[in-house]
Specification:
The chain is an alpha/beta fold. 43% of the residues lie in helices and 15% in strands. A hairpin with a 5-residue loop joins strand 1 and strand 2.
Length: 414
C-alpha cells in the first residue's frame, strides 16, 4: 500500500465533509477590515468568530506601530534562530515587560503558541516524570504529551476528587522513578468558556508534591483586575509555577510566551527545540507586541468595553432560557440539542437570513446530540449587536424545537 493511499480513501473525521463543506462551513473566507462586521460571500455579516477580544487588530495605534516597524526593519530582520544570530535587545525587552506584567521573574518568547506549548512539554519532562492533565486540554497540550515517554494520567474535566486520585497514582510512580509530577490545566477553556479550578488545584499542593503549568491563551489580557490572566483572577499568581500566554487572542498578533522562575526559563531557552531550530520572531511582530502590551496595561477601557459586551450577551441569553453551561469568561457557548443536519441548517439560516456569522460545532468535535454555537464577544461589538443576535437566536431556537431544520434537511436530501 502506498502511504498516500489513505489521503483519498480516508480523509479523516472532518475531511470526510470536505466536498460539501469547504468554503462555507469549513475554511470560510471573511474579508474586509477586522471588526464586528465583515464581508462573507459578498454580504456584510455580524461576526462573532474572531479572537480579537480587546478590539486591537485594527486599532489605529496598533496599525501605526506595525506599519512603522515594518518600514524600519522589514520582515526579515533578525535572520536566524535566536541562539545563533536572531537575538535582539527588543526581544529581550518584550520578555522583560511580559514577565513583569504577569508577575514572574522571567519570560521567553515563542514563535507560535501551539508550537511553543508542544516544545515546552517536550523539554520540561522526561521519562521519569508523570503528567496529570484535564480531559478537555487543548490539542496543543495533547500533541505535546505525545512526545512524552513517561506516564500520563487524565482526570475528568475540573473534577478535583479525581485529580487527587490521579496525583496519588502519580506520586507512587515517581517515588520509584525518582521523577516529578507536572499538572497541566487551562485558565480559560476555549470551547466551553469555563475556568480551570486553579484555586482548588493549588490547594492540593498542601498534600501532593507537583508543579502546575497553565495554558492561559484565552485568559491573558481578558481575566483578572489588570488583565494579567486567570491566575490573577484567582489571586494565585505566586502558586502557578509555569504560565503560558499567546498573542493570538487578546493582543491580536502572532507568537506567545512562557513565564516562570528565572532558572526554569533559562533551561527552556537552551532546551526548547521549537525555538532553538526556528527563525526568531520578525521585528515588526516584536515591536507590535510591545505596543499591544502597552495598550493592555495603560488603556483598561478596552477590557472594560469587552466585559460590558460579555455581560450583556451572557445575561441576555440566560434570561431567555439559553444554556451557556458554566461559561464565566468572554467565551460564550450556546448549547442546543441536535446533530450535524440541524447544525448545518442553523449555520445557513444564521448566515443567509440573519447575516450572523458564528462558529458552530457538532459531532465529532463534541458528543453526539449536541450543537454548540460559539460566540466570541469583543470590544468592537455594540449593545445593538447583542440585542439583535439574541433575538435571532430566539427564532433559531424555536425552529429547532419545532423540528423545522430536520424537515428542511430531509427535503434537501430526498
Amino acid at each position: 500500500m502506498d502511504v498516500f493511499d489513505k489521503c483519498v480513501s480516508n480523509m479523516g473525521p472532518l475531511g470526510q465533509y470536505a466536498t460539501q463543506s469547504e468554503g462555507y462551513f469549513m475554511f470560510p473566507k471573511l474579508e474586509g477590515e477586522i471588526c464586528n462586521k465583515m464581508q462573507f460571500m459578498g454580504k456584510e455579516r455580524l461576526v462573532w468568530s474572531l479572537n480579537n477580544y480587546l478590539g486591537l487588530a485594527n486599532h489605529p495605534e496598533v496599525r501605526k506601530a506595525d506599519a512603522d516597524a515594518a518600514k524600519e526593519w522589514g520582515l526579515a530582520y533578525p535572520m536566524g534562530a535566536r541562539m545563533m544570530s536572531g537575538q535582539t535587545k527588543y526581544h529581550e525587552e518584550l520578555e522583560r515587560q511580559l514577565a513583569e506584567f504577569v508577575g514572574r521573574e522571567a519570560a521567553y518568547l515563542l514563535n507560535y503558541g501551539y508550537q511553543g506549548m508542544i516544545s515546552i512539554i517536550n523539554a520540561i519532562v522526561d521519562r521519569k516524570d508523570v503528567i496529570v492533565y484535564d480531559s478537555e486540554a487543548h490539542a496543543c497540550i495533547i500533541d505535546g504529551m505525545r512526545l512524552h515517554f513517561g506516564k500520563r494520567f487524565v482526570y475528568p474535566h475540573n473534577n478535583m476528587e479525581n485529580l487527587a486520585k490521579e496525583l496519588e497514582r502519580a506520586t507512587k510512580i515517581v517515588e520509584q522513578t525518582g521523577g516529578g509530577i507536572l499538572v497541566i490545566t487551562e485558565g480559560v477553556y476555549g470551547m466551553a468558556g469555563d475556568l480551570g479550578k486553579l484555586d482548588e488545584i493549588v490547594a492540593l499542593k498542601k498534600k501532593f508534591n507537583f508543579r502546575l503549568f497553565i495554558d492561559d491563551a484565552h485568559g491573558f489580557g481578558t481575566m483578572g483586575p489588570t488583565g494579567a490572566g486567570t491566575d490573577e483572577y484567582f489571586g494565585i499568581q505566586d502558586q502557578v509555577d509555569l504560565y503560558f500566554g499567546t498573542f493570538a487572542k487578546a493582543m491580536a498578533g502572532i507568537g506567545g510566551f512562557v513565564a516562570g522562575k528565572k532558572e526554569v526559563i533559562k533551561f527552556l531557552m537552551y532546551n526548547m527545540r521549537s525555538q532553538i531550530f526556528a527563525k526568531s520572531l520578525p521585528m515588526p511582530m516584536v515591536i507590535g507586541a510591545m505596543k499591544r502590551l502597552e495598550m493592555l496595561r495603560t488603556q483598561p477601557e478596552h477590557r472594560e468595553n469587552l466585559w460590558k459586551i460579555v455581560n450583556a450577551l451572557q445575561s441576555g441569553l440566560r434570561a431567555r432560557g439559553f444554556n451557556l453551561g458554566n461559561a464565566n469568561s468572554p467565551v460564550t457557548p450556546v448549547i442546543l440539542n441536535g446533530g450535524v443536519p440541524e447544525a448545518t441548517q442553523i449555520t445557513y439560516d444564521l448566515r443567509e437570513n440573519f447575516n450572523i456569522f458564528c462558529s458552530i460545532v457538532a459531532y465529532p468535535v463534541i458528543p453526539k446530540g449536541m450543537i454548540l454555537l460559539r460566540l466570541i464577544p469583543t470590544a468592537n461589538h455594540t449593545l445593538e449587536d447583542v440585542e439583535y443576535t439574541i433575538k435571532a437566536f430566539e427564532v433559531v431556537k424555536a425552529k429547532l424545537e419545532n423540528n423545522e431544520y430536520a424537515h428542511v434537511f430531509k427535503e434537501q436530501t430526498a
